[in-house]
Amino acid sequence: EAQVTQNPRYLITVTGKKLTVTCSQNMNHEYMSWYRQDPGLGLRQIYYSMNVEVTDKGDVPEGYKVSRKEKRNFPLILESPSPNQTSLYFCASSSPQGSAPYYGYTFGSGTRLTVV
Amino acid sequence: AQSVTQLGSHVSVSEGALVLLRCNYSSSVPPYLFWYVQYPNQGLQLLLKYTSAATLVKGINGFEAEFKKSETSFHLTKPSAHMSDAAEYFCAVSDYGGYQKVTFGTGTKLQVIP
Hints:
heterodimer; A: mainly beta; 7-stranded mixed beta sheet; 4-stranded antiparallel beta sheet; B: about 0% helix; globular
């Protein structure tokens, strides 16, 4: 089954303790992206990647790091989490228009992060 | 720069009534436009997308949206609401084909009243 897999689904951590949220896709998609979802703010893009070793900042990159060493994986790293990073995080992947099939972003099920 | 405005954070309709969810966009180039749906405790699922091939776009679950350049709108409609349509709906815009920088609206929660 074509899917984007995020782990963990739920995470409670303390301020300053480094953490990594993993994301993996099995569709051979070139493009991957991380979003955070907050009530009343919709989804805001954190980082995106157009291919291996190619990443760029989205709208809210502060406090986050990403890496794309393999095409299928796009982990999100919080070096020193703070309470304002408490949010619901989504990873998504896509393939460029022109290569079949193109259906827009496929989203993972989300990671609910709480930083205390 | 691209942006999306969704009018109405909450919309309530009766079962069987018309569903209309409003989306206006801003884009410096011909845009790619999307509607996504999010059911509780789930990720987002693509409903439909506009990529300039046709102004009226049909999606899954009986939804459709019409691209109106003069109004910079991409409203989502469904002729008859079902209870299963209750969810949050997000409009999104991209200047780059929909796979790089994608900007989402703040979402509209649809309530369907029996």
